[in-house]
Amino acid sequence: MNLLPYDSETLVSALSKEEVISHLNRVTREVNYLDPRTQANEDILFNGLVGKKTFRISKVVNRADTFLPLILGKIESTPRGSILFINYRLFPGALFFIAFWSIILLAFTAVYSFLIPNYGYAILCFIIGLVNYIVAMYFFNRQVKASRKVFHQLINFQMKD
Known about the structure:
Structural class: alpha+beta
C-alpha cells in the first residue's frame, strides 16, 4: 500500500501506439454530466480525453467515488509495439479534501499540545487525522487496483476481424 496518493507503472504492449490510442478512443468519452444521452453507452469504460501521445482518463463509475484515481498516461512507439507510462493520482478536489483535514487536525494537535495543554484532545485529534489519512489511502489504493485491472484488460485486448 502506498503512503502517498500516487502510483505509477510502465507497461510494454505488443500493440502499436496507434492501436492503443484507437482502443482508448473506442472506450473513452468526454464527460458531459448535463446530457443524459451520453451516459447510456455500456461500451464506455473511461471518462476523459485521449490525445495523440497522451491521455487523461478515469474509470466510469455508477456512483460518486471520492478516491477514484485520475489516470495520466504517455504512449511512445517502439519497433515491436509501444511503451505506456502511467501515473495514477487523486483528483485535485479529493487531494484538497485530504490535505485540508490533515492540516486542520495537525493544527488542533499542536494547539492542544502546546498552547492549551490538553493531551487527551491532542492525542484524539492526532488519531482522527491518522485514521482519516489511512482510510483515504486504503480506498485510493483499492480504486487504483480496480482501475489498473480494467486498463490492463483493455491494453491486452486483441482486435478480432
